[in-house]
Amino acid sequence: MIRLSLADIAEAVDGRLHRAEGPEIVSAGVEFDSRKIEPGGLFVAVPGERVDGHDFAAQAIADGAAGVLAAREVDAPAVIVPPVDDDRLGALALAGDVDGSGAAVLAGLAKLARHVVDRLPQLTVVGVTGSSGKTSTKDLIAQLLEPMGSTVAPPGSFNNELGHPWTVLRADENTRHLVLELSARGVGHIAHLCEVAPPRIGAVLNVGHAHLGEFGSQEAVAQAKGELVEALPADGVAVLNADDPLVAAMAERTKARVVFVGEHPDAHVRAVDVDVDELARPTFTLVTAQGEARVTLPLFGEHHVGNALTAAAVALELGATVEQVAERLGSVRRVSARRMEVSEAPGGVTVVNDAYNANPESVRAALKTLAAMTRGRPGRAWAVLGPMAELGESDTEAHDEIGRLVVRLNIDRLVVVGEQAQVMHQAASLEGSWGEESVLVPDVDAAVALLRAELRSGDVVLTKASNSAGLWRVAEALLAEGDAGRQQP
Questions:
Q1: Quick one: which H or E segment has residue 310?
Q2: What is the pTM of this model?
Q3: Disulfide check for 220: which of 215, 412, 459, 484 has CB 3.0–4.6 Å away?
Q4: Strand order in 30-31's β-sheet?
């Protein structure tokens, strides 16, 4: 973060000083976890479901914080933010319900982030959104841009009204690229995030069924995702997936120049001759107006080809050559946890931990990767699946389709975890699984017990479910047996 006085911060957020004179300098990062505060940092007192950050203000100062951003007076030097009206409260509801004081702090944090962005004219802001693949693509873009200048990107999926400005405030005078992941649970949310850090390059990956319970239809999802390209300036660039009709149609909603990516023959940045190896790592020829190059991704799953094309398009726009892009894509690494995390467990079992989250599109991609990883090999393919959340009226149909897909892909065993996902088990049985090819277990512990009893060397186990199901604990339990699992390259 750039150096700011508490007086500067008070002015930026339309707040007032409390127990502070104003010259106190914030010289370190912004944190909402008091345990992570650094000397000279700014502590953001966010009221949460379990604890209220205001109660930790004095401790944060004792640990070295220069000040606190708060919604009410605390026993510490602070900037007190003003309250927000009901309209603003609605725009700040990405991560669930927030009360008035929480909304006020988040609004203040957003204003501070915008103030910092406006003070960094050298900064290029890149925004990424989509129903699936946002985090992986954000990680790829950041790795391609880092050799071209200091790059800031969020850890994991910091993509809402708290994580978004927190990431922005990590930028300073040396930062050249700010790569941001934008999430939405309603129309207007992405537009709000774009106000916090106006993007010059915006990429939309896909429009799927994630959060369909909130939006009601894919068309409504497309309306929300398209807010990113609507926010781009005339000299900006919209990177759109030509293989997704709802995304391609967003070209009509932006004044920016459009770059299409995909396997579609009309895409400006295109993949041809796509193939995967025995571990489902994809290879393809990158075709651009600047030339062609062969790319081999050290990532698992053919779905990463689309993510890589988006990253390539962004890097090319910012000055990389085709050869540089191909070389860098060949050495990228998985950054965020529990996303196609492939490790070898004791006993010769391969574990694919993709349990950070799930929607129909991402589960289909994971299952196809599992099928590719076991094709022609002696081991069995195990899909350990839990519920996909927030699907609304399409919940039953979506779970039914996944259960049938498991059978159609010839995956050997399906373990469905939890009653919420039982439709998958029923669908697999109706599609033709027999005996114990598909089983329904009540919880994670039961799934672990079953796997421990029946796994054998050469088997590959995929864990996938919405985050709340906690299915990563299945992967962690299998890897914890004996020595820690060794990650595949």
A1: helix 304-317
A2: 0.89
A3: 215
A4: 16-18, 78-80, 67-70, 42-44, 30-31
